[in-house]
C-alpha cells in the first residue's frame, strides 16, 4: 500500500511537470490537490499561493487561499502558509479584514523559519507601530535582512528611513542599491518573484 502511494505521488509530480511545461496552471492546481489528498502536505501552501496571487487560468480567490493556508498550518505548520496568511491579514482582501495582530503572528512564524520576505512586512509594521512597538531600529534590522534575501524593495524602505533621519548620502546609496539589485534580477528573469511592489 505504501509503495502504491509512493508511485501515485511520483506519477502526480510527473503530471505536474508536464502541465507546467504546457502552461496549464489550472491542471497544476487540480493535480496538487490530488497530492494533498495523498498526504503530501507541502502542496497545500502552494495551492493557497496560487489562489492568493492568481495565475493564468486560475482566478484570485482570497477565501480559497486562506482555507488552503489554514489547512497547511493545521496539517504541518508550513512556514509558507504562515507567510501567505500574514500577507493577506496585513492588507486585508475581499472578505478578509485587515488584522495586524494576526498578520504579526503569522509573519513572525515565517520569519523565524528563514523566510526573510516576511521581514519586509514586519519592518513596515515596526515603522508604523502596527501590532508592535514603533521602533525604527527594529524596522531597519528587518529590512537589512530582507536585502540579504535579495528583495530590492527593502532598499526603498531603508532609503526612506535614511531620508527621514537626515542622512541624504545614505539615502542615495540605498536608492542606487535598489536600482542595481532590481536590474540584476530583471536580467535573469523579468518576472522574478523578488521583484514586487510596495505593500499597501
Structural overview:
By secondary structure, this protein is mainly alpha-helical. It contains ten helices and no strands. The chain has helices at 2-21, 25-37, 42-53, 62-76, 79-91, 100-112, 117-128, 136-148, 153-164, 168-188. 34% of the residues are buried. Pfam families: Sel1. InterPro entries: Chitin_Synth_Reg (IPR051726), Sel1-like (IPR006597), TPR-like_helical_dom_sf (IPR011990). Keywords: Repeat. This is Sel1 repeat family protein.
CATH homologous superfamily heading of the largest domain:
Tetratricopeptide repeat domain
Helix percentage: over 70%
Describe the main β-sheet briefly.
none
SSE succession: HHHHHHHHHH
Strand % is under 5%
Q: Please, what is the oligomeric state?
A: single chain
| Envelope shape | globular
The rounded distance between the terminal residues' Cα atoms is 49 Å
List the uncertain runs.
Answer: none
Helical stretch tally? 10
Output the CATH class name of the largest domain: Mainly Alpha
Task: Report the CATH topology name of the largest domain.
Answer: Serine Threonine Protein Phosphatase 5, Tetratricopeptide repeat
Q: Per CATH, which architecture of the largest domain?
A: Alpha Horseshoe
Please provide the count of β strands. Answer: 0
The value of Rg in angstroms is 19 Å
Pfam family, one: Sel1
Keywords: Repeat
InterPro entries: Chitin_Synth_Reg, Sel1-like, TPR-like_helical_dom_sf
Protein name: Sel1 repeat family protein
